[in-house]
Amino acid sequence: MSSRKNSSLSLADAVPFNRPCMMGNEIKYMAECVKRGHASGDGVFTERCQEFIENNFQASKVLLTTSCTSALEMAALLCDVDSSSEVILPSYTFVSTANAFLLRGARLRFVDICEDTLNIDPKQIKDAVTDKSKVIVPVHYAGVGCDMDEINLIADQHGLDVIEDAAQGVNSQYKGRSLGTIGRLGTFSFHETKNFICGEGGALLINDEALIEKAEIIREKGTNRSQFFRGEVDKYTWVELGSSFLPSDILAAFLYAQLENMDRITRQREHIYNLYLELLGPLAERGILRLPIIPEGRTSNYHMLYIITEDAQVQQGLLKQLNERGVNAVFHYVPLHTSPMGESLGYRKGMLPVTEDLSARLIRLPFYFELDDGSIHRIAGEINAYFDGV
Ligand SMILES: *Cc1c(COP(=O)(O)O)cnc(C)c1O
Q1: Domains delineated in the chain
Q2: Which residue's C-alpha comes closest to atom 2 of ligand 1?
Q3: Which one, 83, 84, 205, 347, has the greatest CB density within 10 A?
Q4: For residue 215, what are the CA distances in angstroms to 40, 197, 312?
Q5: Burial of 55 by CB count in 10 Å (0-12 exposed, 13-18 middle, 19+ buried)?
Q6: Does residue 5 have a pLDDT over 70?
Q7: From ligand 1's centre to the CA of 70, what distance in Å?
């Protein structure tokens, strides 16, 4: 590659991959929460966040959790996943999608993804169904919905539950329905790397009324505390297996300040996304890299901007050069089936060719609310410079 004058950038000049931001009322609401004398879970701000999500996404029942990881763990408990169960999920995902079910002793059936969206491939799900199958876990990668009609059809035919990992899909839609509200259960993340944040946080969306009471119990350490506070039972006691899955109301207060700015955050992310597309479009037109694809009937929440390079060598070379020049682009995921844990479960390289191919070619570019146009121009400029003369 050509040598550059500005190859020794100071750290201060580096564009980080992510930067958490505040929308204005975070500190005020957190202080208000403590002054009210209720800093533990299920206070006023938890209620406000849950109502906000229920109203804006037409979700029937929402419970805030400490993370998307814990919402997935609750979902596994709610669907009675145990050591006799098989769970069908993509290998191209974050570890929590798998751990939640492995913790219940389930057998994981990793399947391949679609070329266009990098979402779980319904054809592969069909082939993986056995008489032990219990749950399908579609992961809405980059905030673009999976083929939910096909997935729900397969689930209905075989009596399986669908648990949507919508960690990245908050405020995205599939055929007019919000991601997270389409399966029997859905999970959101409010981790600092997601669109709406509170540091660590999540939500469980319960789309089957029959599971609401059990979900409240599991989330409250296996007690009927929620029913007790509503006056539905006269004693509060241990009734089921459970854990502590509810976040402090202080974190809910922070989150509410973000949720009330949902449109503003989304519009800004849309602007960042479109500027990247505009500046990288010419490289895509020349076939040098591929940009994200959003199929008909699906909307994006502009969670991330990834590019797909021609091969692994270009991915590694471009990543190295971007990082050397102060652009903290990253790679993800090591496919779960080729990770040390995946291999210990009997998986091997070569089993899921699309996942292995695309994960070795994908790069995520810096993407956060405060990323300014100048930085985006600089990042796109560095990418164009890498391919100069190609
Ligand atoms: C971020 C993420 C999670 C985990 O979310 P936490 O809130 O950090 O637990 C799970 N699944 C996917 C697909 C994610 O992107």
Answers
A1: 26-259 (3.40.640.10), 262-386 (3.90.1150.10)
A2: 167
A3: 205
A4: 18, 23, 43
A5: exposed
A6: no
A7: 10
Sorted by sequence, the CB contacts under 8 Å of residue 96 that are 6+ apart come out as 67, 68, 69, 72, 165, 167
Q: Is 97 in the pocket of ligand 1 (CB under 6 A)?
A: yes
Cβ atoms of 97 and 72 closer than 8 Å: yes
For ligand 1, pick from 119, 120, 168, 189 the residue to mutate: most ligand atoms within 8 Å of CB.
189
Cα–Cα distance measured from residue 292 to residue 194, given in angstroms and rounded to the nearest whole number: 18
Residue (of 198, 144, 100) closest to 306 by Cα position: 144
Residue linked to tokens 């471009």: 318
Q: Which of 64, 66, 94 to mutate to test the pocket of ligand 1 (most atoms within 8 A of CB)?
A: 94
**Is any ligand 1 atom within 6 A of the Cβ of residue 18?**
no
User: At a CB cut-off of 8 Å and minimum separation 6, what does 260 contact?
Assistant: 23, 25, 52
Backbone angles phi, psi at 19, to 5 degrees: -145, 120
CA distance 242 to 9: 51
Is it true that the peptide bond before 333 is cis, omega within 30 degrees of 0? yes
How far is residue 17's CA from residue 360's CA, in Å, rounded to a whole number? Answer: 19
- The CA 333 to ligand 1 mean position distance, Å, reads 12
Predicted TM-score (pTM) of this structure: 0.96
Q: How close is the Cα of 385 to the center of ligand 1, in Å?
A: 33
Cα 95 to middle of ligand 1, angstroms: 8
Residues near 338 by Cβ (< 8 Å), separated by ≥ 6? 91, 347, 348, 349, 356
Q: Which atom of ligand 1 is nearest to the CA of 70?
A: 9
DSSP at 15: B
Could you read off the pLDDT of 250-288 as tens digits, one per residue? 999 999 999 999 999 999 999 999 999 999 999 999 999
pLDDT for position 9:
54
Name the residue type at position 159: G
Q: Is the CB–ligand 1 distance for residue 139 below 6 Å?
A: yes
Q: How far is the CA of 36 from the centre of ligand 1 (A)?
A: 31
Pocket of ligand 1 contains residue 67 by CB under 6 Å: yes
Q: What mean pLDDT comes out for the span 293-303?
A: 97
CA of 39 to the centre of ligand 1 (A): 25
